[in-house]
Design a protein that fits this description.
mainly beta, 8-stranded parallel β-sheet, binds 1-methylethyl 1-thio-beta-D-galactopyranoside
Length: 941
């Protein structure tokens, strides 16, 4: 099988060319094919390509598909390491081989005289050998790149045709495709038969730039005899090859994705493209489009679907790109390979800056000190250049593609230089990106991944010794599990330093594989001997593409409009580079204790891109009779999309002195204070009026998030070593003073002599009980605390939640931009964020008061003297900590409520920097006060 070990070179494929519309006949060969999987090449059916071969006993498989998603073999996940021995170009003997067969009829139109035909595969993973009607056409490698075979003379119009494709999971090309994702073989993109008229439009390269004078400039490479037109611009019958002034045009940008229909016609074929006029240039070290600095508010996008693997249905893609737009994502890096071609059409249409990345990664060689890296192995040179060429040729006409990327994590080497040289020669209109070579030898931008805020700041200030090129973070803010934290601080750096031109969050999507029980599989769940666990679950959206709180936060951080709200006035700052705000309005409301008292809206003037305006908000002063008054303002575009939000505190009603007083007393085996009943062993509250509970007790543990668990020197390991998940509580003293019950405790872990001395002081306060918790760390505390607060257990019936504080979604100290102060209602079940791998979640920040209630109105109200975070769920933190999949979490017979004075931030340490110092929860003396009341049942209405 020498073609498998032929250093990744395809055989027999025609010259790569662009994807575009044509009036020549096409025939989709997608559909149900016959399929048989063999465990090795030798065990595959000999002669299956013969037209007469009997495949009646074979299975059916849809094409396109990733066959392990259809019950043939199993998916496997590794991030960096190769799942086979590293001995390029050899591949394992046990090489799953999928034979595919299709019998198809060709419409009569294909039989016209002088018509050739071509067979196009948009994606075959990793190697496909192709026969038509028993004639071998060749071999394709380069999984996420197109391949075309000339079938002129082989195709039989008017008769049944037999297409046979043998797909091998492993080939020499696999060494070049070590991306961080599931290994999923198959014919996973479209298969199309294309009629090729003699003298037709075989290829087109549109160079459409936007000139400083507002004119478009057009040059089309194509057949010499072809004629070019753009009817909308009154351009007709232009020759190819020459440059033309297209007159005044509206430029294409990601913010204003204006496209024009362009037609290229020969006597035998008419091709149609939707083009955009735009000019990409690096000017004085700044990356510009149409003369203006741009900022990437980007995400890395893989192509994955939880039920279909690498096959993502078109409606799902459109919906996900729209979801990105709604969260103000303006850029996509196609990590780490060119996407399905239709994705780029959508990027042109909806407006994204795209870094189109080549299907090239050799990361696993990094584990071997880059010994034998294909990037520097001359035997792989052709394959490397071939990959670059096929990407550039396919995608060259997309206005959204503003940069080419050589690939990802492929070390350094001469072949990268060859790829770069080829791309520069072919397309001088787009800068080059590659991160893996820190010297940026072959690139036009200085790209890094996961640089800390401090390092980005140093790069911005010019105090860093990296190359002096526009700086971007091709990956940052690893969105694994609960997180990332620290987004707004990166955004501030992109605003502060012109050279720092944004970045791409890692990554858009959790690549979980749906299981019948309703949870998602990740690495190891298919029994892979070598795997990287849940490192593949690191997206801003869950596998079904519903947003995680990380995306909500990102949407607020990437928002194009910043509002600085003061009582009566708002500074509106337009962060768009090309769009003015003329079509937007400011919607405002004044709320008291979260209840809207007045509202209105003011039209926005056409604030130009990059500029600010002061806008008066004509609200009348309100003196809140109770609680707090806030002015909330949203900038909203014509389509109703919120472009930015802000709030100002307007004032608070003076606190009404509560009726205090009442003495604690012993009563039989219990201690009573007003409506409260305490047990004497630990001194905990067990009843408040009619409500049975298990009293507030100090808690510092959280179910470690991925950012706690992973990275160098994981915090969670240090936390566990310190025993923070198994703290014991010793009653030191129980003092029934004049008007207070003081419970003194020492909270500490077995084997440790450090402790948190904790005093609970209870006082009667109106109908409720006021609790002041004072904590004093003693001993060595050189680690931050996961959280600092109290937890209590409540009856399961208290399922309804209302709070006044930050919301509506979860928020943590370093992920709090999206949350606004208001009054919110939810349920204990809905407060939970169902991370694919269970971990701490659901905190509602800056809460002033909350109620948990049963349908009859009974329940618990908590007022915080200061602001607290709260978390309510139906399982304990220990159960959450132990769970590995969603389905492990079973509701207990309690509601577990956490009331937290402090929470450690989220950071991004699973891959990148940890929590910024200002968001670390240091173990330090702390005092906080809570008021507990137990409302009686409300009268039936
Ligand atoms: C980086 C990879 O480029 C990306 O594909 C992904 O694996 C990410 O890490 C982690 O999820 S490389 C890493 C060594 C910084």
């Amino acid at each position: 099988m020498t073609y498998l070990t032929g250093f990744g070179r395809p055989i027999g494929t025609g010259a790569p060319r662009a994807a575009f519309g044509t009036d020549a006949p096409t025939l989709s060969l997608n559909g149900d094919w016959r399929f048989r999987l063999a465990p090795s090449v030798a065990e595959a059916a000999d002669g299956f390509w013969a037209p007469g071969f009997d495949d009646s006993g074979w299975a059916e498989l849809p094409v396109p598909s990733s066959w392990p998603m259809h019950g043939f073999g199993r998916p496997a996940y590794t991030n960096v390491v190769y799942p086979f021995p590293v001995e390029p170009p050899h591949v394992p003997t046990d090489n799953p081989t999928g034979d595919h067969r299709l019998v198809f009829d060709v419409p009569a139109a294909f039989g016209a005289a002088g018509l050739g035909a071509s067979l196009r595969f948009d994606g075959v993973d990793s190697c496909g050998r192709v026969w038509l009607n028993g004639v071998e056409l060749g071999v394709t490698q380069g999984s996420r790149l197109p391949a075309e075979f000339d079938v002129t003379g082989v195709l039989r119009p008017g008769e049944p045709n037999v297409l046979a494709v043998r797909v091998h999971q492993w080939s020499a090309g696999s060494y070049l495709e070590d991306q961080d994702m599931w290994w999923l073989p198959g014919i996973f993109r479209d298969v199309t038969l294309l009629a090729r008229p003699a003298g037709g439009v075989d290829d087109v390269f549109v160079h459409a730039t936007y000139e400083p004078d507002g004119h478009g400039r057009l040059r089309v490479e194509g057949p010499a005899e072809a004629r070019v037109s753009i009817p909308e611009l009154g351009l007709a019958d232009l020759p190819t090859g020459a440059a033309h002034d297209a007159g005044p045009v509206e430029p294409w940008t990601a913010e204003t994705p204006r496209r024009y229909d362009l037609v290229v016609a020969t006597g035998t074929e008419t091709a149609t493209l939707r083009i955009g006029f735009r000019t990409v240039a690096i000017v004085d070290g700044i990356l510009t489009v149409n003369g203006r600095r741009i900022v990437f508010r980007g995400v890395n996008r893989h192509e994955f679907h939880p039920e279909r693997g690498r096959v993502v249905p078109p409606d799902v893609v459109r919906a996900e790109l729209e979801l990105m737009k709604h969260h103000h994502v303006n850029a996509i890096r196609t990590s780490h390979y060119p996407p399905h071609p239709a994705v780029l059409d959508l990027c042109d249409e909806l407006g994204f800056w795209v870094i189109d990345e080549c299907d090239y990664e050799t990361h696993g060689f990094g584990e071997l000190g880059w010994r034998g890296n294909p990037s520097d192995d001359p035997r792989f040179a052709d394959a490397c250049v071939d990959r670059m060429r096929r990407m550039v040729e396919r995608d060259k006409n997309h206005p959204s593609v503003i940069m080419w990327s050589l690939g990802n994590e492929a070390g350094v080497g001469a072949n990268l230089g060859l790829m770069a040289d080829w791309a520069r020669r072919r397309d001088p209109g787009r800068p080059l990106h590659y991160e893996g070579d820190k010297s940026s030898a072959h690139t036009d931008v200085y790209s890094r991944m996961y640089a800390s805020h401090a390092e980005v700041d140093a790069i911005g200030r010019g105090e860093h010794h990296g190359p002096r090129l526009p700086f971007i973070l091709c990956e940052y803010a690893h969105a694994m599990g609960n997180g990332p934290g620290g987004l707004i601080e990166y955004d501030e750096l992109f605003e502060r330093y012109p050279r720092c031109q944004g970045g791409f969050v890692w990554e858009w999507l959790d690549h979980g594989i749906r299981r019948p029980a309703g949870d998602y599989a990740y690495g190891g769940d298919f029994g892979e001997p070598l795997h990287d666990g849940n490192f593949v679950i690191d997206g801003l959206v869950f596998p079904d593409r519903t947003p995680s709180p990380g995306l909500t936060e990102l949407g607020a951080v990437y928002a194009p409009v910043r509002l600085a709200v003061r009582p009566g006035e708002v500074t509106v700052r337009n962060r768009y580079a090309f769009r003015s705000l003329g079509q937007a309005v400011l919607r405002w409301d004044v709320s008291v204790d979260g209840v809207v008292a007045r509202q209105g809206s003011v039209p926005l003037p056409a604030v130009p891109p990059g500029e600010s305006a002061e806008i008066a908000v004509p609200y009348e002063a309100v003196v809140p009779p109770a609680g707090e008054a806030w002015l909330t303002v949203h900038a909203v575009d014509r389509a109703g999309l919120v472009l930015g939000s802000g709030q100002a505190f307007l004032g608070a009603a003076p606190a009404r002195p509560a009726v205090m007083g009442g003495a604690p007393r012993r009563d039989g085996g219990v201690i009573r204070l007003g409506a409260g009943e305490f047990e004497p062993v630990h001194g905990r509250l067990v009843r408040l009026g009619g409500l049975a509970l298990r009293g507030p007790v100090l808690d510092v543990w959280r179910a470690p998030i991925d950012n706690d668990r992973l990275g160098p020197d994981p915090l969670a390991d240090r936390w566990r070593a310190a025993g923070l998940h198994r703290m014991t509580h010793r009653l030191v003293d129980l003092e029934l003073g004049g008007d207070a019950l003081v419970v003194a405790t020492r909270v500490a872990a077995a084997a440790s002599d450090s402790a948190l001395l904790t005093w609970y002081t209870w006082r009667l306060c109106g109908p409720g009980l006021e609790l002041t918790v004072r904590v004093e760390p003693v001993g060595a505390w050189d680690i931050p605390l996961p959280r600092l607060g109290v937890r209590l257990e409540l009856p399961a019936g208290l399922g309804d939640v209302t709070w006044f504080g930050a919301g509506p979604g979860e928020a943590y100290p370093d992920s709090r931009t999206a949350a606004l102060i208001g009054r919110y209602t939810s349920t204990v079940d809905a407060l939970v964020t169902d991370y694919v791998v269970p971990q701490e979640n659901g905190n509602r920040a800056d809460t002033r008061w909350l109620t948990l209630s049963a349908p009859d109105g009974t329940g618990l109200r908590v007022d915080a003297a200061d602001r607290i975070g709260f978390t309510a769920r139906r399982w304990s933190t220990a159960a959450l900590d132990a769970a590995r999949h969603r389905t492990d979490l079973l509701p207990s017979d309690r509601v577990h409520l956490h009331l937290d004075h402090g929470h450690h931030g989220l950071g991004s340490a699973a891959c990148g920097p940890g929590v910024l110092p200002q968001y670390a929860l240091e173990a330090a003396p702390a005092t906080f006060t809570l008021l507990f009341t137990a409302p009686a049942a409300s009268p039936p209405s």
